[in-house]
Specification:
86 residues; alpha+beta; GIY-YIG endonuclease; three-stranded antiparallel beta sheet; 3 strands; 47% helix; globular
């Protein structure tokens, strides 16, 4: 299973990514020297949104869609996700 996700960084900004292991990737964003430079300098980060997909192609498509959203659109997704489990 693959996951598209949104993280909220310590400075309040959002980071969008995808992975096949959410637990490992969140650990990397918060603790590893390897990985995304953007989150490395904005730690700690918190998982605020996630969707699951059966294929790599689908998750990459959705990641691209999430990256193109405006901040208010991302905030809307985050708020809905926090209210109801998906």
């Amino acid at each position: 299973m693959f996951h598209a996700y949104i993280l909220q960084c310590n400075d309040g900004t959002y980071y969008v990514g995808s992975t096949n292991n959410m637990e490992r990737r969140l650990y990397q964003h918060n603790n590893s020297k390897a990985g995304a430079h953007y989150t490395k300098i904005r730690r700690p980060v918190t998982l605020v949104y996630s969707e699951s997909f059966p294929t790599y192609a689908e998750v990459r498509r959705r990641e691209g869609e999430l990256k193109r959203l405006t901040r208010p659109q991302k905030e809307s997704l985050v708020n809905k996700w926090g209210q109801a489990p998906f």
